[in-house]
Structure formats: C-alpha cells, structure tokens
Amino acid sequence: MLEEENLYFAAVGDVHGHIYRMLGLLQNWEKKTGKSLSFVLQVGDFEAHRHEEDLKTMDAPTKYKQLGDFTDFYEGRARFPYPLYFIGGNHESYGFLDQHIKGKEIAPNFNYLGRVNAIKLAGLKIVGVSGVYKADLFSQLPRPTVAEFRNHSNKEYIGFLESEIEQAIDYENTDVLLLHDWPRGIISAEALEKFKQRYSNADYNSIGNEYARLLIEILQPKLVLCGHLHFKYRYVFNSSSQLVSNICCLANVKQGQDSLAVFRIAPDLKITEIN
Ligand SMILES: [Zn+2]
C-alpha cells in the first residue's frame, strides 16, 4: 500500500479553553512525523466562550469560569489550521451552544456537532452525542431552551436525554462514536488502582455510564473516543456479534501528550491508532 494513500486524523481530550496548547500538540506531531493531519475530533469540555455572558451559562465552580483562548479565534486574532469537530461536555456555555443544537461552524474551522449528529469525514461516518448522563435530566421532555436559561440552573443543560440516545441508536454504519464520558464497565483492575490514586472515592461502578455502553453495543463503531475523566486509557470492546470497537479515552490538554491520539485511515477505511 502506498503511504500517500493513507490519511491521518487526531483525537483530543478535554480542552477547557486551552486551544493554543492543543494546537502545539498537533503541530508537534506533524513536525515529528512529517505527516499532515486532515482533521481533528474533540470529545467535549471544549469551552467555546465568546465573552463573559457566555460563561454565565456554564455549569462549573466560579474559579473555573475563565474565558480561555476561544475569543482569539472567534474574533479573528488567531486562526486554527485544521477543521475541528467537537461535541459538548458538562462544562460548556450551553447558552451559546444550544443556539445550534443541530451543529454549526461557530468560528473558522471550529465545528460544533450539536446535541446529536452524524457527519461524514474522509469516508467515515462520525456520530457524536453531547453531554453526560444525569439520572434526573435523562427523561426531561424537552430540555429547557436557551430563552429559558434565566429560570433554570446551568446544571439542567449538561445531560443528554433519553430521546437523544434513541436518535443516536438509529444511526447505521457508524465508524467513529464521540462521547464525553466513558462507557460503564471497561476499566481494568490495574487502571482502576491508578485512577484511585487521583480520585480516592472512585469505584468500578461509578466510572462511566450504561447508555454510552449501550450505544457501543448497538452501533458497533470501529472507534469510540471519550474524555471527561482526564485519564488516558485504551480498551478493546467485544460486542456480541464478534465485532470489535477500540475505545480510546483521552486525558485533558493540560496534561499534555496523553490528551492526544492520532489515527491512520487506510484506503479500505480501516482505522489504526499510531504513535
Ligand atoms: Zn474535563
């Protein structure tokens, strides 16, 4: 197979407004390998805040309500060189993002996928579901709108809905699934020990959620990308039909290299993680 027939894309963990750090990691990879990246997928907690008003609609402790780098890109002082596609996490200005629940390019090359969406990139079908699982929000029907923000807590916007999981289940032939939180039941005993050194009260049944797992079982994507826990981890998920989904959990951008994964797309659309 000719090397030039391959394409490469990157996946990045929680950005939390540190777009320049992310950019440094991506450009380093290109410099080191001499290859170029076609696009970037990002798993939420991106923090696209345009101004202070947006921050008021993010669910987070006050000390974490920082504008971050997005304003530079939004106002044209900087340009991001790769098309980037992201879902929403639990720390986002949903007062802004929920104005585009079906997705939108919110600044040059920064594409929000919306609450649930499927797009096609380099021949791959990418499905994304924004938000995290919250039992009390899951059966909401519907979620309050942007216009109603004043009368609701920011927390009411961070969860995905049962109807959105159902919508995602209907997507066929998914190649890549973007989720913010992990699926339940994938962490190994060894990784759990390491995880507990950082989060002492963590236990097997508190990591990830059942709906993420259900989506993987039904959609059987080749690749699942997630973040949220700021912890690098890989897992091979065997769904009942003998198909395999590679699960790639990413650290956050502030942690450096562990937040980045790069994949090769072969002409037959096989996806392989490379270093
Ligand atoms: Zn995060």
CATH class: Alpha Beta
- Quickly count the helices: 8
Question: Number of domains in the coordinates?
Answer: 1
What is the spatial order of strands in the main beta sheet? Answer: 4-5-3-2-1-12-13
Helical amount: 10-25%
Number of strands: 13
Mean pLDDT: 95
Keywords:
13 strands, seven-stranded mixed β-sheet, 275 residues, single chain, alpha/beta, 22% strand, binds zinc ion, 8 helices, globular, six-stranded mixed β-sheet, Purple Acid Phosphatase, chain A, domain 2
Commentary on this structure:
The chain has 275 residues and is an alpha/beta fold. It has one domain (3-274): Metallo-dependent phosphatases (Purple Acid Phosphatase, chain A, domain 2, 4-Layer Sandwich). It has eight helices and 13 strands. The chain has helices at residues 19-33, 52-55, 70-74, 94-97, 135-138, 162-169, 189-198, 210-219, and strands at 7-12, 39-42, 84-86, 104-107, 110-112, 116-121, 124-129, 176-178, 223-226, 233-238, 244-249, 260-265, 271-274. The strands form two sheets. A seven-stranded mixed beta sheet has the order 4-5-3-2-1-12-13. Strands 6-7-8-9-11-10 form a six-stranded mixed beta sheet. The structure holds zinc ion.
